[in-house]
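Journal club side-thread
Mid-discussion, someone asked how the predicted structure for our own chain would compare to the paper's figures. Pasting it here so we can look after the session.
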Amino acid sequence: MQETIGQAAGQIWQVLSTKDSPVSIADLPKLTKLKAQVAYQGLGWLAREGKVSYETKGTKTLVSLHPAECYC
């Protein structure tokens, strides 16, 4: 299972690295084509490693790569 979650984290990182603005966490399963549970576990992996930043806008929680992760 750890390998699956690690791969999901990699997919999420790739998606976020292509975005110019934060992404709703609710959209991650669709953007990565992962099951919601696996996508959220992968997001947790990235959060634990300090690779993502969160912000809240209204009722949405948005996520983006931490600035140190962006090679723009």
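Post-session note: The CA atoms of residues 12 and 32 lie 7 Å apart.
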